[in-house]
TrEMBL record, chain A:
Upper classification of the organism: Bacteria, Candidatus Roizmaniibacteriota
Name of protein: Glutamyl-tRNA(Gln) amidotransferase subunit A
Chain ranges of the Amidase domain: 24-453
Residue positions of the active site: K82, S157, S181
UniProt gene name: gatA
InterPro entries to which the protein is assigned, alphabetical: Amidase, Amidase_CS, Amidase_dom, AS_sf, GatA
HAMAP family: GatA (MF_00120)
Length: 476, 441
């Protein structure tokens, strides 16, 4: 057995037929992790004892009732949770040593939903501390490495989840996407990564980075698996007033339907200098495949794109500075001096932009820009059904390459942040491989259009099947 | 005090609402529970990842109070984060309202004139610090039972001009809040906390001063007197402050802008925080709580729960039952209680008893029912017809008294009433008997 050769659908069939048991599956998960993780550093905490116990329990359930899968659609599926996801009695660090020994007394809503659906929590994954970063290098623990090349970053901030799914430790890795943090690691690790519509998935129990941006997503190897997980995690939550009571679609049901006549928009502001030609060519190639599948491609404009990063880096640090004030040195043990350089930078930036006398010039102005960005997308979606842009302007970069230049690091997210400003969904699928590295492509849609994004991504994936390419552990 | 200085006072009053659950979580609202930290959850402890969900009832009660104070209601309102560091504030910020409070521009009448209400807004209470000596160590303990209790703040314009008026305003506000039955306003337990902003206006140097239309220019400083937990302390604290500030002004200086506390034992105020240390609260809209639309429909629903206005009720009772507000106000707190009281008044009228006397007896003799009142006054059951027979008889045997009365000596009627009662060998209501005798004369 090999997790990289399995999908959620395969596992359900195998468990039903008794090809393997839940326990065997979970044991395989842990043995893969033990084999690779010393070098990759995807996990901060493993939940082995509890996971095996749960697997045993599920094996008994399956014996009794084969229809248990109707009730528990993710039964037995090994899942890794980013360490911003609060887990009852399992250490939750946010990638920071300030709360390095915090054992929460409750489960996040999404964690509860995954557990109720039968998913097995394998462990908690490494990340840029508090979600601040694009490479995973801002962790207070060991830096996570890209399974395709251990000298390269896996993308962040959900670096551990990305790497863990990529090397076959788990089937699903959860993440939070405030500016890029699910889509970028998905792009760098050959995965399908969803940033859902803001308010589609509950934030309750997810340690906040920037509350009006944080979108709770996940990474899988295939589109079907990704859609299947969203069916479980999406929905209104009485504990999160920013969730929206809009019906959750059966995302997997429409996979395979034709995209003939679908209009794809190519924002001209995204195909400019700074974008690696190799990446650009890969995307253009993918667009040809989509045209072959019946879609039409046209250029559109998102005129305020240039202001997006500036607005993002005022609004996000403002909220960050507020959200991090609860780690005041009185609770959780660690003092505020233990914040890393990036967190300190954002606390200072945010405290400044919220200060009286500066609020109007920075926060309020940025909030207005945010509205303009949102409107840009709304206007574009009057012309086209979805937009396609590169996920990253470059290939996965080297560890250490950008750590001393925060601005360069911020620019890794230039094609991703505007989507968070607008609160709309974005899905990373694999556009292809260049020089042995995965290249991600982002499909963007209007609010609550996840079903549509999956539909496009699925046909493309069936045509290209990049997910079958396995990591080479170069330089490992 | 001489007329050289005019005190200018504005007030800020915090009141804990007595909703069943917390402002942003489902915890029981019981800030004074005997055991510490028993009514807590991830939300009111500010644990990582926990999110607030606004208590609809608390919002409705805030709007209800605003309406009772004659406020305008913002159609669109929101919650904001107010940042400051303190051990009893677990999130590092308090969820409050900054520039879009639920209610604004209201009024409270006092005998010295109206006090304009600037705003009424809603926020969450903080935890409570308890400083104790345990096993020889001085420690500070935190009780989070109070954390997240709905807290309403009522802010006035600087329309108060004396310590007495400040006290009257605060009492009136408490009366209105209790009447709405949305808070017990227990001052000793911190259920109602008073703050006064005090400064002195130099009247002589400002001839434009005109109290009645408030067109004077405010002094260039103010002193905030904080955390006062009784009306008496409010009055005394303000008086002390007026005197202290007057002395400073007389010496040619300007008092420092600062926050001061009141020490009841010594009857003095003392420095707590000066302007230099004042926090920048870095307010911004709380992204966890969507803005709140107060629709016409919702507002009307809230309006329909409003009782008869407090001032109107007293006016009506004065006209209808000849009741003095200062007396009858001792008999009820909530609107519900006022309704029950009026039921009793109606019963009095039906039984031809004096409501005024009944109220008197309720206040002074602590009786509660009409039966008790009757027993106390010992009024016997006797019909008008029976009485008429006796009256005719008494009038016949006392022709002089009758003549005197008719000649204008109206007090003679009291003698006749006494005679009738003696003859009847019964205790009969004086007023009733007097009226009956008059009908014969």
């Amino acid at each position: 057995m090999d997790l990289l050769g399995l999908t959620i659908k395969d596992i359900e069939e195998s468990l039903k037929k008794g090809v393997f048991s839940c326990q065997e599956l979970v044991k395989e998960s842990f043995s893969t992790i033990k084999k690779h993780d010393k070098k990759i550093n995807a996990f901060l905490t493993l939940n082995e004892e509890q996971a095996l116990k749960q697997a045993n329990h599920y094996d008994n359930l399956i014996k009794k009732d084969k229809n248990i899968f109707d009730e528990k659609p993710l039964l037995g599926i090994p899942v890794a949770l980013k360490d911003l996801f609060t887990t009852k009695d399992i250490r939750t660090t946010a990638g920071s040593k300030i709360i390095g020994d915090y054992n929460p007394p409750f489960d996040a809503t999404v964690v509860k939903k995954l557990i109720d659906a039968g998913a097995i929590i394998i462990g908690k994954t490494n990340e840029d501390a508090w979600g601040h970063g694009s490479s995973g290098e801002n962790t207070d623990y060991e830096v996570t490495r890209n399974p395709y090349d251990l000298n390269r970053v896996p993308g962040g901030s959900s670096s551990g989840s990305g790497a863990a799914v990529a090397y076959g430790g788990v089937l699903v890795g959860t993440g939070t996407d405030t500016g890029s943090s699910v889509r970028l690691p998905a792009g760098f690790c050959n995965l399908v990564g969803l940033k859902p519509t803001y308010g589609r998935v509950s934030r309750y129990g997810i340690i906040a980075m920037a509350s009006s941006f944080d979108s709770i997503g996940h990474m899988t190897r295939t589109v079907y698996d990704n859609a299947k997980v969203l069916e479980v995690t999406a929905g209104v939550d009485p504990f999160d007033s920013t969730t929206v009571p809009i019906k959750v679609d059966q995302y997997t049901k429409k996979l395979g339907q034709s995209i003939k006549g679908m209009k794809i928009g190519l924002p001209k502001e995204y195909f400019v200098k700074g974008l690696d030609d190799k990446v650009s060519n890969s995307i253009k190639n993918s667009l040809k495949i989509l045209e072959k599948l019946g879609a039409t491609v046209k250029e559109v404009s998102l005129p305020h794109t240039d202001y997006a990063m500036a607005a993002y880096y005022i609004l996000v640090p403002s909220e960050v500075s507020s959200n991090l004030s609860r780690y005041d040195g009185i609770r959780y043990g660690g003092s505020r001096e233990m914040f890393g350089a990036e967190a300190k930078r954002r606390i200072m930036l945010g405290s400044y932009t919220l200060s009286s006398g500066y609020y109007d010039a920075y926060y309020l102005k940025a909030a207005k820009v945010r509205t303009l960005i949102k409107r840009d997308f709304e206007n574009a979606f009057k012309e086209v059904d979805v937009l396609i842009v590169p996920t990253s302007p470059t290939l996965p970069f080297k560890i250490g390459e950008k750590v001393d230049d925060p601005l360069q690091m911020y620019l890794s997210d230039i094609f991703l942040c505007p989507v968070n400003l607008a609160g709309i969904p974005g899905l990373n699928v694999q556009s292809g491989f260049v020089d042995g590295f995965p290249v991600g492509m982002q499909i963007i849609g209007p609010q609550f259009s996840e079903e549509l994004l999956y539909k496009v991504a699925y046909l493309f994936e069936q045509e290209t099947q990049y997910y079958k390419i396995r990591p080479k552990f170069k330089n490992g | 005090m001489d007329k050289k200085y005019q005190p200018i006072i504005g007030m800020e009053t915090h009141v804990e609402l007595k909703t069943k659950s917390g402002m942003f979580c489902g915890c029981k609202n019981d800030p004074d529970a005997k055991k510490p930290n028993i009514h807590t959850c991830p939300v009111c402890l500010g644990l990582p990842g926990a999110l607030p969900v606004a208590n609809k009832k608390a919002i409705e009660w805030t709007i209800k109070l605003g309406l009772a104070l004659g406020c305008k209601i913002n159609k669109l309102s929101k919650f904001d984060r107010k940042h400051y560091f303190y051990p009893d504030l677990p999130k590092g910020y308090q969820i409050s309202q900054y520039d879009m409070p639920f209610c604004y521009q209201g009024k409270v009448e006092t005998s010295f004139g109206p006090v304009r209400i600037t705003r009424v807004h809603l926020e969450e209470d903080t935890g409570k610090l308890i400083h104790q000596n345990i096993n020889g160590h001085n420690v500070s303990l935190i009780d989070f039972n109070r954390s997240g209790v709905p807290l309403v703040e009522v802010v006035t314009e600087p329309d108060i001009f004396s310590s007495v008026q400040a006290k009257e305003y605060a009492k009136k506000l408490r009366q209105i809040i209790r009447y709405l039955d949305i808070s017990d306003c227990d001052m000793e337990k911190g259920g109602m906390r008073l703050e006064a902003n005090i400064s002195l206006l130099n009247v002589k140097s400002q001839m434009t001063n005109n109290k009645s239309n408030s067109k004077f220019k405010l002094p260039n400083y103010k002193v905030e007197l904080k955390n006062i937990n009784s009306f008496r302390f409010l009055e005394r604290g303000i008086e002390y402050e007026i005197e202290r500030q007057r002395e400073i002004l007389e010496s040619g200086k300007t008092p420092i802008q600062e926050t001061r506390g009141y020490n009841a034992e010594k009857n003095i105020t003392f420095t707590q925080r000066t302007k230099e240390e004042a926090a920048d609260y870095r307010y911004f809209p709380d992204p966890d709580l969507p803005p709140i639309n107060i629709s016409e429909k919702w507002l009307n629903e809230i309006k329909s729960t409003l009782p008869e206005p407090f001032d109107g009720l007293f006016k009506r009772w004065q006209e209808k039952y000849n009741l003095k507000p200062e007396l009858v106000e001792l008999l009820f707190e909530t609107a519900e209680e006022s309704k029950k009281l009026e039921e009793l008044f109606k019963k009095c009228i039906k039984e031809k008893l004096s409501v005024e006397k009944f109220v008197n007896a309720m206040v002074h003799k602590k009786i509660k029912t009409i039966e008790e009142f009757k027993k106390m006054t010992n009024i016997d059951e006797v019909s008008d017809d029976d009485l008429k027979v006796i009256i005719e008889k008494i009038l016949k045997v006392n022709p002089k008294a009758v003549a005197d009365y008719k000649a204008g000596k109206i007090n003679t009627i009291n003698f006749l009433v006494g005679m009738v009662m003696r003859e009847a060998k019964k205790k009969i209501e004086f007023q009733r008997l007097q009226d009956l005798i008059k009908s014969f004369l």
